[in-house]
Amino acid sequence: TRFDMVVSAFSLIDLPDRRSRLEAVLNLWRKTDKYLVLVELGTNAGFK
């Protein structure tokens, strides 16, 4: 099943490593036909 919009909120940071996060995002991307919305907490370091 594919969806117009897929949302992931405040969950990627809980995954153990970068590879796990990439796999999760790719899985989410495969489930959408239009939009993928990722919501995560930001940091000052990430902003710069």
Automatic annotation (TrEMBL):
UniProt keyword list: Iron, Iron-sulfur, Metal-binding, Mitochondrion, Transit peptide
Keyword Glycoprotein recorded: no
GO cellular component terms, A-Z: mitochondrial small ribosomal subunit
GO biological process entries: translation
Alphabetized GO MF terms: iron-sulfur cluster binding; metal ion binding; methyltransferase activity; structural constituent of ribosome
UniProt-annotated location(s): Mitochondrion
Domain of life (superkingdom): Eukaryota
PANTHER family: 37S RIBOSOMAL PROTEIN S22, METHYLTRANSFERASE-LIKE PROTEIN 17, MITOCHONDRIAL
Functional description taken from the UniProt entry: Mitochondrial ribosome (mitoribosome) assembly factor. Binds at the interface of the head and body domains of the mitochondrial small ribosomal subunit (mt-SSU), occluding the mRNA channel and preventing compaction of the head domain towards the body. Probable inactive methyltransferase: retains the characteristic folding and ability to bind S-adenosyl-L-methionine, but it probably lost its methyltransferase activity.
Protein name as annotated: Methyltransferase type 11 domain-containing protein
UniProt source species: Bracon brevicornis
Taxonomic lineage: Eukaryota, Metazoa, Ecdysozoa, Arthropoda, Hexapoda
